[in-house]
Amino acid sequence: MAFGSFNTAGTQMPTAEINMTPLVDVMLVLLIIFIITAPLMTHSVPVELPRAASTPTPEKPVNLQVAIDAKGQVYVGVERVAGDQLEGRFRMAVAQDAKVEMHLQADRNTRYEAVAETMSAARRAGLTRIGFVTQPTAK
Predict the structure, then answer these.
(1) Any domain includes 96
(2) Structural domain range at position 94
(3) Model's pTM, two decimal places?
(4) CA pair distance 126, 91, nearest whole angstrom
(5) Closest residue by Cα to residue 94 from 117, 64, 71
(6) 3-state DSSP call for residue 63?
(7) Which sequence ranges are marked TM in the entry (predicted)?
(8) What is the pLDDT of residues 57-113, one digit of tens each?
(9) Residue 91: which CATH number?
(10) What residues have CB less than 8 Å from 130, skipping those under 6 apart?
(11) Residue 50: alpha-carbon gap to chain centroid
C-alpha cells in the first residue's frame, strides 16, 4: 500500500508501487499450462516393430596414420614422405575413400610450423577429418 513520503512539510507526493497481482496471475496460468502439456509430450504412439534377421555392415573408416618426429620429418604409416610429396599422398588417400580420417601424432618437441604445414597440406588435399593422438596423463 502507498502511504506517502516521510516528508511532512508541504504537499505529500504519492509513491509508485508495482502491482504484483497480474504477474502472479500470468505465472499461475503458465504453470497450469505446463502441468497439463508435460505429460502429453512423453506419450508416444505404441508401434510393434517387425522382426528381421540381418547383420549390420561394419563400415570402419580408413585411418591414415601420420607422424611427425622432433626433427620435423613426416611419416605416413611407416614410410617417410618429403614435404612436397605430402599433399599428393593425402590426395591419393582421399581418392581411395572420401571419408578417410587422419590421425596425427606429433612429438612434443616438434615445431608448430611442421604441424601447421602438414595440416594445411591435408586440408588442401580434401581431408576434413583430422584428429590428434595424445598419451593420457597418469592420475
Answers:
(1) yes
(2) 63-132
(3) 0.55
(4) 7
(5) 64
(6) strand
(7) 20-41
(8) 677 777 888 999 888 899 998 889 988 899 999 999 999 888 889 989 988 888 999
(9) 3.30.420.270
(10) 101, 102, 104, 119, 122, 123
(11) 35
